[in-house]
Amino acid sequence: MNSLNDHSALKHPVTRLTEALTILEQRGWFAGRGADKQKRFASIARLKHYDAGEAVYLMGDVPTGIFGLVTGSLDCSFPRSDGEDYVMHRAGAGFWVGDLALLSEKPRLISIYAAEPTTLVQLPIQELSNLVREDPSLYADFYQLTYENFEHTFRIVTNLSMQSAKKRVADKLLFELNAWPQDEGWLVISQPDLARMTAISLPTLQRVIRRFAEDGLIVKAYGRIKVADPDGLLAICQQDGA
């Protein structure tokens, strides 16, 4: 069994909604809602399971609610003009998505795929709309979620503006690390995936990763990368020049 599967096996499947909500209460947007709001959202929540590569929703879809990531990981992607999907971000547990389409009542702007076997909690659109209609103050909670997700988007754009390959890779690893706070520094991202996310050729990415590993900044494994020295990566990002 390869190391990626070994790692995945450590995460036991979440089969009960109560367990899923308990996980979400510990991290991310849901953790900051307060007990009363958490209880109201929990009353409409549904547990969803997705296989690796399965679409949660696609760009242009009519919104069906918002989704919170319990276990596994999600790829957030946007179609390029050449027809290929650009994966902007690989999200870890505690990530919520779908808020923008909910607030705007417009079709989905991005596509979301399960990057591995993944468990989500869905707050369905109709039930969620009823809650907000009964208590309009809940809009503030979803605007906060939108703010957080826009902050992620700006970080992604800023990363792509970095001309130095090693700075771009170091910055991306730190950004993704923030999405995986409970996994002891492990990111479920292969080198080909990381090359696509940073818009760097695979040979260049491999050279950078090899150097980072030699310097003790990261640990390489099959389909995964461990950030061993976040401060060292941050120092690279802050260096002058290339």
Globular, elongated, flat, extended or rod-shaped: what is the shape?
A: globular
What is the name of the CATH topology of the largest domain?
Jelly Rolls
The arrangement of helices and strands along the chain is HHHHEEEEEEHEEHHHEHHEEH
What can be said about the biggest beta sheet?
Answer: 4 strands, antiparallel
Count structural domains.
2
Number of strands: 11
CA-CA gap between termini: 40 Å
* Helix/sheet category: alpha+beta
Beta-strand percentage?
15-25%
CATH class of the largest domain: Mainly Beta
Computed Rg: 18 Å
What percent of residues adopt helix (DSSP H or I)?
A: 40-55%
Query: Could you give me the name of the CATH homologous superfamily of the largest domain?
Result: Jelly Rolls
Round the mean pLDDT to the nearest integer and report it: 88
Number of helices: 11
Walk across the major sheet and give the strand order: 1-8-3-6
InterPro entries: cNMP-bd_dom, cNMP-bd_dom_sf, Env_Response_Regulators, HTH_CRP, RmlC-like_jellyroll, WH-like_DNA-bd_sf, WH_DNA-bd_sf
Protein name: cAMP-activated global transcriptional regulator CRP
GO molecular function, one term: DNA-binding transcription factor activity
Organism: Methyloligella halotolerans
